Amino acid sequence: MDTQAGAPTGATRAHGPLTRRLRALRNRLNVTDHSDCGEIRRLAEERGALQQVATLVARGSSPSVIFNAAACALGGLIKADYTAINRYEGDRTMSIMAFWRAPGTPDIGPPFGGRWTLGDDTPSAAVLRGHKPSSRASATIRSDIGGWHRAHRIGHAVACPVIVDDDLWGTMTALYLGTDPPECDVEERMGKFVELLNCAIIQAKTRCELITSRARLVTGADATRRRIERDLHDGAQQRLISLALRLREAEETVPPEHRELRQRLSEAVQDLTGTVDELRELSAGLRPPALAVRGLDAALAQLVARCPVPVELNIDAGRRLDEEIEVSLYYVVSEALTNVLKHANASTASIDLEKENTRVCLTVRDDGVGGADPARGSGLTGLRDRVEALGGTIKITSPPGHGTSVVVAIG
Ligand SMILES: Nc1ncnc2c1ncn2[C@@H]1O[C@H](COP(=O)(O)OP(=O)(O)OP(=O)(O)O)[C@@H](O)[C@H]1O
Ligand SMILES: [Mg+2]
């Protein structure tokens, strides 16, 4: 059968409606495909950005690192020119916790040295009133920050509430240069991101509070120790010394014929002198004087000299460290060596102290029986608290039969 090119045959004619439906379906699928791809890509970007931040939280990074990463991740995601994380302060100002700028934009911030007045007409002020996102053209912002926007050609600002533990904590702000308004779904995308970011802030906040409270505990304990040491020195120790002197004077005034009385007084003086020595040693143990006077290196050498197990001491010569770091490292070595004596049955031990720029690394190692377990005592756990309170890390490796190492890194 002859047919004209392009003319429908009976079969195709019969299938015409089906073909049309298939074509329509294919078109719909294509359209759906594209939008799905776009949506999937956006979700993947969003997830990637959040994952970056979540990884930092999981690693226990400091809040400032997390905030900077969040500001950067959000900025890239919503194509902002600048982003900031702001915290509401009690006096109607905002503190900028992080400020990010897109590559290629002028380096303009953070505004007002990082603390700016909230005003009444800024997006963050609107967020404070309504607890929901707010967007404004800079031209309509009369407050100081509006002037700063215009001076730097910022045309639009969008702010999203950051709610932590049911409290309005601050805002995440996106700033856009030029006159074009941001895409209409920016608020929604920011909101979604900020919602997920809250977890990071809560964790960062909790961890930060935890570290601060640990630091308070440790420094509190050190301060108490210092106070007891001073009280012992200035109080009981001095009174015992003067009592011993008075008894010695009394002893000398006893006539020779009262030999027994003289003898008893002399014994009392000896006892008292022994007690004073004991007290002096006790208070010296609370905070080693060598540490205050001659520094960590000398104090460690003194600990090693007193240790019955041979200890090799390797110290990077040089600078003194912060007092609280020196005190902590001293107690790490003191506890680790005490453990060597008490538990390790070791033939040798070693101490290595490396000081590189701002970082300090201390290792105490023994060749004893291994098997150390912090759950069985309080010494090793106390060391962990002490070191982590300074932002450091401690690693205890102690395979049974293969010795123990305690490695501390600070800075
Ligand atoms: N160097 C070591 N070699 C072998 N075992 C060790 C060593 N250090 C610690 N241990 C084991 O780990 C446990 C926990 O040590 P930790 O220092 O926390 O407590 P402790 O020494 O028993 O008591 P304290 O609270 O007085 O320090 C110890 O009881 C001991 O069994
Ligand atoms: Mg111990």
TrEMBL record:
<dbReference type="InterPro" id="IPR029016">
    <property type="entry name" value="GAF-like_dom_sf"/>
</dbReference>
<keyword id="KW-0808">Transferase</keyword>
<dbReference type="Pfam" id="PF02518">
    <property type="entry name" value="HATPase_c"/>
</dbReference>
<protein>
    <recommendedName>
        <fullName>histidine kinase</fullName>
        <ecNumber>2.7.13.3</ecNumber>
    </recommendedName>
</protein>
<keyword id="KW-0067">ATP-binding</keyword>
<keyword id="KW-0547">Nucleotide-binding</keyword>
<dbReference type="InterPro" id="IPR036890">
    <property type="entry name" value="HATPase_C_sf"/>
</dbReference>
<keyword id="KW-0418">Kinase</keyword>
<dbReference type="InterPro" id="IPR011712">
    <property type="entry name" value="Sig_transdc_His_kin_sub3_dim/P"/>
</dbReference>
<feature type="coiled-coil region">
    <location>
        <begin position="233"/>
        <end position="282"/>
    </location>
</feature>
<feature type="domain" description="Signal transduction histidine kinase subgroup 3 dimerisation and phosphoacceptor">
    <location>
        <begin position="225"/>
        <end position="291"/>
    </location>
</feature>
<keyword id="KW-0175">Coiled coil</keyword>
<dbReference type="InterPro" id="IPR003594">
    <property type="entry name" value="HATPase_dom"/>
</dbReference>
<dbReference type="Pfam" id="PF07730">
    <property type="entry name" value="HisKA_3"/>
</dbReference>
<dbReference type="InterPro" id="IPR050482">
    <property type="entry name" value="Sensor_HK_TwoCompSys"/>
</dbReference>
<keyword id="KW-0597">Phosphoprotein</keyword>
<keyword id="KW-0902">Two-component regulatory system</keyword>
<feature type="domain" description="Histidine kinase/HSP90-like ATPase">
    <location>
        <begin position="326"/>
        <end position="408"/>
    </location>
</feature>
